[in-house]
Write a structure and sequence with these properties.
By secondary structure, the protein is of the alpha/beta class. The chain contains 15 helices and 13 strands.
C-alpha cells in the first residue's frame, strides 16, 4: 500500500504533531507500556509510568507489552490456583482447546483459512518441522534456495536439513545475492535464477522481509514462478507477520512460519505460528515428526499407539502449548484483529515515509538508507548506514532515550510500529540524529 502522493511532509515538530492529531490510530499508543528514560536507567517497572517515554523503534526485535497482557495472564494464574489440573476443562477459557482461541485471529492476520494456521512451538522449531515434510530431495532435485544474508538461524536450519539428508550444504544450499554494487535483490533476478536453476531446486525458503535490509519480496510473483519450475515454496514471516498485509492462501505459499515477539508483541521468546496451505491439509502421506497434540482430537485421550494426524496445520503440533504464552499472544492479537492489517499498514507506510524524508533531509553524507524506497518493497523497518562508528552512535541514542538496534557489519535498524509509535517519535529521532550530524 503506497503512501498517498498528495501527502507532503514538513521537517517540523508542528507538522509531526498535526499528523498525530489526525491519526485515527493514535489512541492505541495508550494501550501499550512504553519504556521511559527513567525506567531505562533504573530497570524498575515503577518508573515506566509518568516518565518521559522513550522513542522506541525496536519493535522489529521485541515488541512492547500491551497493557491487556497482565490481565490476560492473570486470569490463567487465578484459574490455575482455583482449579489445578481441572483448569484444562473448567477454566474460564479451558486450557485443553485454548490455542483454538487464537486460530481465527491468526488466520486473518496472515491471509489464511483457519484450517491452515496454528500457534505452536518457536520459529526455528516450526521451520524444521516444515522442512521435514516439504524438503523432499531426490537424486536430480535436492537443492534449497534461500536469500543470501538470511537470518543465521534460517541458514543453520537449512544447512542442517541438507546435511541430514546426506548432502553437502556447500552444494545443496543455493543463495540469492544482489547485483554488484546494490544492496537489495531485484525480483527480475530472482525469477531469472529460478528459470535457470529451478529444475535442481526442491524447495525455496525466503524471509518475506529480509531482517538486515528490510526489503520485502514480491511473494506472489516469486511463489508462482517457483511452482512453475516444480519447486515447493516456504516463507519465514518473522519480519512480516504483524508488519505487512499478507495473503498466504491466495499466494499459494506451501508453508510459512513466524515468531510473535517482534511486531506481534507477545513477549520475549514467546510462541510462534505456522501456516500449511489447504492443498496439503490431508496429505497424511507426507513425512512428519509426530506428537500427540497433532493427533485426532476425538481419539487423542484413548492413548492409542498409532498416530492419526488432524487435518490441516494442527496436525503438525507436537505438545500441548504453554497457556501463559498463549494468553499473552491472545491479548495482543485481539488488538491487531480490532484494527486490521490494512489500517495498520496504511499508518506504517506514512510513518516510514516520514522517517525516510527526515533522514534524507539531514545534510551531508551522515547516513544512507539501504532499504528500498518503494513502499511496496518494505514494511516498517528502515536499515541505515551511518558515517563513523554506528555502535557508538547507538549508545549515544540510548542516552537520549532512543531505542533501536545494530546489526553487523554497520547497520542501525529503526522500525516505527504503527500501533504505538507516533509521528512525534519519528521527529524526535531525526532531530537527535541531526544534532549528532552537525556535531552539537
Amino acid at each position: 500500500m503506497a503512501v498517498s502522493s498528495t501527502l507532503k511532509f514538513e521537517n517540523s515538530e508542528t507538522f509531526a504533531r498535526s499528523m498525530d492529531e489526525a491519526d485515527p490510530l493514535r489512541s492505541y499508543r495508550d494501550r501499550f507500556y512504553l519504556p521511559s528514560l527513567e525506567s531505562l536507567k533504573s530497570g524498575r517497572y515503577e518508573d515506566v509510568e509518568g516518565g518521559q517515554p522513550c522513542v522506541y523503534l525496536a519493535g522489529n526485535s521485541l515488541g512492547l507489552q500491551p497493557r491487556s497482557v497482565k490481565e490476560s495472564i492473570g486470569k490463567e494464574l487465578e484459574d490455575w490456583a482455583a482449579y489445578g489440573v481441572e483448569g484444562h476443562f473448567h477454566a474460564r477459557k479451558p486450557w485443553l482447546p485454548y490455542h483454538e482461541n487464537l486460530t481465527e485471529m491468526s488466520a486473518r492476520l496472515v491471509g489464511a483459512k483457519p484450517l491452515e494456521v496454528v500457534v505452536m512451538n518457536t520459529l526455528t522449531t516450526n521451520l524444521h518441522l516444515m522442512m521435514v515434510s516439504f524438503y523432499r530431495p531426490t537424486k536430480n532435485r535436492y537443492k534449497v534456495l534461500i536469500e543470501g544474508g538470511a537470518f543465521p538461524s534460517d541458514q543453520y536450519a537449512v544447512a542442517s536439513q541438507a546435511k541430514f539428508h546426506g548432502y553437502d550444504p556447500e552444494n545443496a544450499v543455493l543463495e540469492l545475492h544482489p547485483r554488484q554494487g546494490e544492496e537489495t535483490m531485484r525480483t527480475e533476478d530472482i525469477l531469472a535464477y529460478l528459470d535457470q536453476h529451478g529444475e535442481d531446486i526442491a524447495l525455496v525458503v525466503l524471509g518475506n522481509v529480509n531482517y538486515l535490509t528490510g526489503q520485502a519480496f514480491e511473494v506472489a510473483t516469486i511463489a508462482a514462478r517457483a511452482h512453475e519450475k516444480g519447486c515447493l515454496f516456504g516463507l519465514n514471516l518473522a519480519h512480516g507477520a504483524g508488519n505487512l498485509v499478507l495473503k498466504l492462501h491466495e499466494w499459494q505459499v506451501d508453508f510459512a512460519v513466524w515468531c510473535s515477539y517482534k511486531y506481534l508483541n507477545s513477549g520475549p521468546g514467546s510462541l510462534a505460528g505456522c501456516f500449511v496451505h489447504e492443498n496439503h491439509a490431508d496429505s497424511f502421506d507426507l513425512p512428519r515428526f509426530a506428537g500427540w497434540w497433532g493427533h485426532n482430537k476425538k481419539t487423542r485421550f484413548e492413548m492409542g499407539p498409532s498416530f492419526d494426524p488432524i487435518s490441516g496445520a494442527e496436525g503438525w503440533q507436537l505438545s500441548n502449548p504453554p497457556i501463559f504464552q498463549l494468553a499473552a499472544l491472545r491479548a495482543s492479537l485481539a488488538i491487531f484483529d480490532e484494527v486490521g492489517m490494512v489500517k495498520i499498514r496504511e499508518k506504517g507506510d506514512k510513518l516510514t515515509a516520514f522517517l525516510e524524508y527526515l533522514l534524507n533531509d539531514i545534510p551531508g553524507d551522515f547516513c544512507k538508507i539501504i532499504t528500498p524506497a518503494d513502499p511496496a518493497q518494505r514494511g516498517c523497518q528502515l536499515s541505515i548506514r551511518f558515517k563513523g562508528e554506528p555502535k557508538k552512535l547507538l549508545a549515544a541514542l540510548k542516552e537520549e532515550g532512543v531505542i533501536c538496534d545494530f546489526r553487523e557489519p554497520d547497520i542501525i535498524r529503526a522500525a516505527p510500529a504503527p500501533l504505538y509509535n507516533s509521528f512525534d517519535d519519528i521527529y524526535r529521532f531525526a532531530r537527535i540524529l541531526n544534532s549528532f550530524a552537525s556535531g552539537k
